[in-house]
Amino acid sequence: MSREDFNYSSILIQDIMTRALITVNLSTTALQVAKMMEQGGIGAILVQDNSNPVGIVTDRDFATRIAANNLPLNTAVENIMSTPLITINHNEPISAAAERMTSKKIRKLAVIENGKIVGIITSTDLVTQLAK
Length: 132
What we know:
By secondary structure, this protein is of the alpha/beta class.
């Protein structure tokens, strides 16, 4: 089967998303998040306010908000997170995730099922799938 013959609409987000999530609260510092990302080998952490997801901190946020603005590492993630949190439903095709990432100019989407975050899908997940 050639790449052109492959139907990407048949692969659902839930089939390739990452289910292991790390969440922090609004007052967690940038340094704490950076250490969590390094230890977990991940590029994003979800931010919650009273168990409600309100944003995401990505490796890109560090470059564009901490480093570029020379903010101290004890800055609360509330001040550097990307918000509002952009989500996508778990049972949508991966092509929908690619389209949303492209239109919003982002690389990570929180995945929801019945209104609850159940995972995350990244541009890396999409590229990995494409390379199979």
